[in-house]
Amino acid sequence: MKVLVTGAGSLLMREVAIALATRGEEVVCMQRREAHFPPGVRVHQELGDITNLEAVAKAMAGCDGVVHGAARVGVVGTWNDFYNTNVVGTQNILAAAQTQHVPRIVYVSTPSVAHHGLSLVGADATPAVTGHQRAYYAESKAIAETEALNANSNTCAVVAIRPHLVWGPCDTQLVGRIVDRAQKNKLAMVGSGSALIDSTYITNAVAALVAAVDALQVGATCAGKAYVIANGEPRTVRELMQEICNAAGVPFRPKKVPLSVALAVGSLMERVWPRMGKGEPPLTRFVAEQLGTAHWFNPRSAAQDLNWSPTVSLDEGFAELHRWFLEQPRPLPL
Questions:
Q1: pLDDT per residue over 185-216, tens digit each?
Q2: pTM listed for this prediction
Q3: Is 83 assigned a catalytic role?
Q4: What is the DSSP string of 262-293?
């Protein structure tokens, strides 16, 4: 099987490409910059932008399936930035797949497309909703997921996979930010830190996307549906952050911020920070909601329809993360 993987510059999609190639699939990766793969892993790379339909069609030529994970993430950027990459890019994937008669598309989404700002307790993958004010990532991904699932047909099967808070060795997002802020004594704890949240160890997230490739075909149970992927081991925000800090060997001294204050500061940051040109703001309203409210999910539908279940527990993941940090070069003490 020949599979196109988009966005292999990210940790998750790079690992998906490696997993598919390692088991013998012919893998084509499309991203804007060349990605580095382990010796012996044969992956063909097509450099290009998914907002360019011609480049997408070229990369997809002869493919039997697509795992579409290229996206603009974070909170910095204009609405057009997010819309062009996440919505127009997905539209190009769908258009090229239709023209080239590609029979399966795994769309990599996010649970934030269905987040209303309230707690989610044992939740299923409810339909994506729009109206995420100033949360350009969540809004653009919601539009894109809706268009992707609407493209499911009797000639091309589409499934949306929503990995939740993926982390592991080499992660520069969740792990990298928590460790960096802890080192700088700028780590904030929204509310009491007692909100239960799901997260996903990288190995499990990769396995879920590969399982989706295998399960997806026209008429399959999963076709036209969305699934939330997580370890199924809800932990408090405090515990998750503390375990990451412990794994990295950095002090865990978070500053407590009431949720109401975090929401107000986040709203202010959203308006002021883009004008300052300083990269990612330390807090937004959406991030405050995510850290201050529970969100964990029902894993049964993914287990049944995708024949997938986590194989690495959170505790095993923390131990592996610790081993990885021990292997990293550290600056010499002054």
A1: 988 888 888 989 999 999 999 999 999 999 99
A2: 0.92
A3: no
A4: HHHHHHHHHHHHHHHT-SS-S--HHHHHHHHS
